[in-house]
UniProtKB/TrEMBL annotation:
Localisation: Cytoplasm
Gene assigned in the entry: coaE
Molecular function, one GO term: ATP binding
Protein name as annotated: Dephospho-CoA kinase
Membrane-traversing stretches: none
Length: 200
């Protein structure tokens, strides 16, 4: 069974993915695949450098993600151009990863599932939600970014209303880590039950 897992920046989506993986799900991380398709020496990185210029390439030949982020989160067309480069490559790596999975439950951790219109690709869509201010504070504590940068990223993502419209399961992460884990355990039981009944 294929599960799409999504949520806004700072929602705790990656924590949920990690906990589901620990319970037995196979997890495919779209962010990691995105890093792979833009790794040094790849044609994806070469295309990004051609489109966005040498300033997005670090001295060691790797992608300067901060420099690229400043461009694409301030310019919708630039973001669309980046997605046109990366998304087809990510989809191909996702296909290969799926083929290699043996677990009955395969969780796809996809930040932009709603934005890319891919909810219908999955048997079940899980959304992790949290208040905007709480998400902001989490990101500011965890990353070396400014409030303005975080708010630009939030503005570039779908809102909770759009996520709720495609959610089969909603996980509320406004509470404690223990409350989140309790919800994840319940969701895992649901997913196992659906997989056993052959939902595909």
């Amino acid at each position: 069974m294929w599960v799409g897992l999504t949520g806004g920046i700072g929602s705790g989506k990656s924590t949920v993915a990690r906990e589901l993986g620990g319970l037995g799900a196979a997890v495919i991380d779209a962010d990691r695949l995105a890093r792979d398709v833009l790794a040094p020496g790849t044609d994806g990185l070469a295309e990004v450098a051609e489109r966005f210029g040498p300033d997005v390439i670090s001295d060691d030949g790797s992608l300067d993600r901060s420099a690229l982020g400043r461009i694409v989160f301030a310019d919708p067309q630039a973001r669309a151009d980046l997605e046109a480069i990366t998304h087809p490559r990510i989809r191909e790596l996702t296909r290969r990863a799926r083929e290699a999975c043996s677990s009955a439950v395969v969780v796809h951790d996809i930040p932009l599932l709603v934005e890319t219109g891919r909810a219908d690709d999955y048997d079940v869509v899980i959304v992790v939600g949290a208040s905007e201010e709480l998400r902001l504070q989490r990101v500011l504590r965890a990353r070396d970014v400014t409030e303005e940068q975080v708010r630009k990223r939030m503005a570039a993502q779908a809102d909770d209303e759009a996520r709720a419209a495609v959610a089969d399961i909603w996980i509320d992460n406004d509470g404690t880590p223990e409350q989140l884990t309790s919800q994840v355990l319940r969701v895992w039981e649901q997913l196992k039950d659906l997989a056993a009944r052959g939902r595909r």
